[in-house]
Every structure is written in C-alpha cells, then in structure tokens.
Amino acid sequence: TQCWCIELQEHLKDVVAQNGTGDATAPVRALLEYGMSIKLEQERHQRASEGKDKREYPYVSEAGRCPRQLFFALTNEPKTEELTLDSYMTLRLGNKAEELYIELLEAAGVKILAQERVELESGDEKIVGKVDLLVEIPEHVRAAIPNLDEREVWELKTKNSRALGWVIKRGGPEAEDGYIKQLRSYLHAAET
C-alpha cells in the first residue's frame, strides 16, 4: 500500500507539472476558459460602470515590481499577454484563502477592525492600496498565544509551496522583497 501511495503522489506531481490545472480533457479546459473569459468581461464592465476602468495611481501592492510592469499598468496599455486559466485560478485561490483566514480569525474571537483603502501622498504623487486586515486581538487570546499585540496590521499573502520553501530556505523574505515594501507602506500610512 505504501509503495502505491508514493507512485500516486509522483504521478499527480507529474500531471500538475505537465498540465497546470490538471489532466482535464480539452473540452473541460475549454469550458473553464470560456467561463473565465465571461467572468473577466463582466468584471471589466463593472469597473467601467464605476469609473474604475482607467488607472490613475500606482497601487501599494506594486511596491517592488519591475518599472516596466508599472509603466504599462499606469499608462493603461492593453496587456500583451492575456490571463491564463492557471494564473486566474492562482489569483482567485488567494482571494478565497483570505476569506477563510478571516472566518478562522473571527471564530477565534479576533475582531476585524478594517479592510480599508489607504492613500499615501508624497509631493504631487499619490499611491493607493487596501490594507488586508487591521485586527484587534482579545486579551484572553493574547494570554493563550504569546507575542500578539492588542492591535495588529496584517497583510495576507499566499505562495505556492515551492516559492514558500525557497523563502524559508533563505531565512525569510529579503528586506527589498515587494511584500515587505508593501507592508512598510501600510505601516507608514497607519502612522500618518
């Protein structure tokens, strides 16, 4: 039985490596891609109806991105590569993970104070973003779990296991990591 499990794990690893979202048949993958294209079009239409179809400011989450990426985002240039099904699923899984984290925090008695928009100004430049979580942790929870402050700002990130393993192997994120820059920006906004 043990050998069978190892073979199964190796097989699944190979399937994902070769096919991304799995060993879906061509019609199933085509249906998922069709659904994704409709969903993305609905989201574009929604942003346009809210006047949010054109970018005016960089986002805090873009801290640490390459200047070329930022230039194309801010000039509203059309994307040269459309979002793939695999990329779409990765982004959406990150959103769903954040929702699950919030459910677990609330179950633990943690109060979610804010998930709010932040604006940072420097001269005539403005950068906008959204703090993932400003939380208030009750005293009884802090007593049970050491090293928690009464109020904390949390920026939630998801990484695939390979990328996370690489970060852990290096001893944590580097000082110039984009996520660290993003968190520093939110902390700066909280102080002002």
Helix content: 40-55%
Q: Taking Cα atoms only, what radius of gyration do you get, to the nearest Å?
A: 20 Å
Distance between the termini: 60 Å
Q: Runs with pLDDT <50, length 5+?
A: 1-13
The chain-level structural class is alpha+beta
Give the DSSP E fraction (strand runs of 2 or more residues): 5-15%
Shape: globular
Contiguous helical run count: 7
Mean pLDDT over all positions: 76
Order of helices and strands: HHHHEEEEHEHH
The biggest beta sheet reads: 3 strands, antiparallel
Strand order of the largest sheet: 1-4-5
Strand tally is 5
Protein model, in words:
- This protein is an alpha+beta fold and 192 residues long.
- It is 53% helix and 12% strand.
- The protein is built from seven helices and five strands, in the order ααααββββαβαα.
- The strands form two sheets. The chain has a three-stranded antiparallel β-sheet, sandwiched between helices.
- Strand 2 (117-122) and strand 3 form a beta hairpin.
- The longest helix has 24 residues, at 26-49.
- It is globular and about 55 Å long.
- It starts with a helix and ends with a helix.
- Residues 1-13 have low confidence and may be disordered.
